[in-house]
Amino acid sequence: MARVVVVGSINMDMVVVTNTFPRLGETLFGTGFSTSPGGKGANQAVAAARLGAQVTMVGRVGADAFGAEMKATLVREGVDVRYVTTARQATGIASITLTGGDNAIVVVPGANSELSPEDIDRAADVFEQADVVLAQLEVPYETVLHAARRARALNKPFFLNPAPAVSLSDELLDLVTLLTPNQHELATALQTREEAWADELARRPGQIAMTRGKEGVSYADMDGKLVHKAGFKVDAVDTTGAGDTFNGALAAFWSLGIDEAVRRANAAAALSVTRAGAQGGMPTLAELDTFLETQS
Ligand code: RIB
């Protein structure tokens, strides 16, 4: 059972379903509304836990109803919330417009923006026991950098899902074991052209797994040769959280090697889009195994 520490955001997702995305200045009728647990950090924690990993979340919520609900959800999923502490600001929220299975998201970080390097230091014991440390960029950059430094000092693999996209410093890039961007995030992270992705992957063998939506995932093997893992074909209901499922699964299965970990994470991400909500479709280990048996 992999021990995974997730440093990241916890949001309540406010999901509006529409037939088309609204244009600037336009008012539309929606066809549905729901709230569901989200946040890239919490999503990745839940994805890894459902697949059998022992997960500890390091994050912040507000002293409000959403915060209590989000923490309770994590506990129900078997995630250790000892290091999910209370902030002055309100729990983070994400406003998600869902249209035909696609989405547009606005995040208001709130409590997530108070996750500090001191919070990382307080979680020193779980860093020491971790097999993988996993982070995203919905919490402050200096906190992520601090977590990466601590992971390096302990010789632990540090995975960074660089979302939302920002340019990454050389220091942070050097501390990352595996970067998991999509094509746009890769270009922004490395300050390069989107078309240059294949060269960037080849330049960093085994260090970048680039997600390509339903096309699958690409990375370079240790010889610098490009490997493409095709996506699994499913009927998409809601793509929210597919990338998070991929990241959580990758951490859970990392001990199997990049090839097998990516194959399983790809399958988990495919399954995740077949049900509504960021966490709603994330598979359990048994569901993933059953799915993979039908695919081979
Ligand atoms: O990756 C999907 C997530 O992004 C949503 O759950 C939302 O909270 C935003 O953080």
UniProtKB/TrEMBL annotation:
Record GO biological process: D-ribose catabolic process
EC top class named in words: transferase
Lineage: superkingdom: Bacteria
Key word Transport present: no
Subcellular location: Cytoplasm
Alphabetized PROSITE patterns for the sequence: PFKB_KINASES_2 (PS00584)
Catalytic activity: D-ribose + ATP = D-ribose 5-phosphate + ADP + H(+)
Record-listed ATP binding positions: N182, T211, R212, G213, K214, E215, G216, G243, D244, N266
Residues the entry annotates as binding substrate: N11, M12, D13, G39, K40, G41, A42, N43, E138, D244
GO terms of molecular function: ATP binding; metal ion binding; ribokinase activity
Signal peptide positions on this chain: none
Domain Carbohydrate kinase PfkB: residue ranges: 1-284
Activity modulation comment: Activated by a monovalent cation that binds near, but not in, the active site. The most likely occupant of the site in vivo is potassium. Ion binding induces a conformational change that may alter substrate affinity.
EC numbers on record: 2.7.1.15
Keywords linked to the UniProt accession: ATP-binding, Carbohydrate metabolism, Cytoplasm, Kinase, Magnesium, Metal-binding, Nucleotide-binding, Potassium, Transferase
Chain's role: Catalyzes the phosphorylation of ribose at O-5 in a reaction requiring ATP and magnesium. The resulting D-ribose-5-phosphate can then be used either for sythesis of nucleotides, histidine, and tryptophan, or as a component of the pentose phosphate pathway.
Family, similarity comment: Belongs to the carbohydrate kinase PfkB family. Ribokinase subfamily.
Assembly notes: Homodimer.
UniProt xrefs under HAMAP family: Ribokinase
Protein name: Ribokinase
Gene, per the UniProt record: rbsK_2
